[in-house]
Amino acid sequence: MKRPHTAMVLAAGLGTRMRPLTLDRPKALVEVGGRALVDHVLDRLAAAGVRRAVVNVHAFADQLESHVRRRSDLEIIISDERGGVLETGGGLRAARSLLGEAPILVANIDTIWTESAVPAVEKLIGAWDASEMDDVLLLAPTKGCLGFDGPGDFYRDAVGRLEHRGERESAPFAYAGVHLMNPRLIEDWPDEAHSIFGHWMKMADAGRLHGVVMDGLWMHVGDPAARAAAEARLAEAT
What we know:
Helices cover 24% and strands 26% of the residues. It contains six helices and 14 strands.
């Protein structure tokens, strides 16, 4: 496939679980290892060949917009959600006109990972097949991650198709915060605030939701304790 040159970075969350670190800044500007969360993500995207990043903003929007516009390696486009948080699905729908027609990468800002021989985003790009999938998710083994203590999200079959955990107690893989999707699908999504999860379930039912398993260590940075753990692990690696 032609390499994706556009990404959407979902940075408009309230950061409630990250308090008190988010009392004076957006979650995206909380630092881990001396670097803001949003920059950890943008660094990975830029390394994968992304040239333009659409970043949505809400809490402390002026701070975040000023920060990301300092980057010179990416064209930064702001999707303004100052009027109200739209969640993952609504945020993508609001930004649809900014995303183009080619497949796009979408990333949360509370995800950090270490790389192995094949970078995680490269695995996503390499797995893309528009004839077989509408979305491909980066996955992390639930037994090998940091800052995540949930039951897991998905089962994955031999060709990469995903099935949600449903009523089962656990699943072997967690969504690791980055996916690659066909943006044209967004046009049919509702304008109001909503999660992308329901769309994923429809794709899964149709056999068109796929996943690839990352090789490095995934660190979910969702609260101050997880931030501290991620910072310690990054320090060990240097």
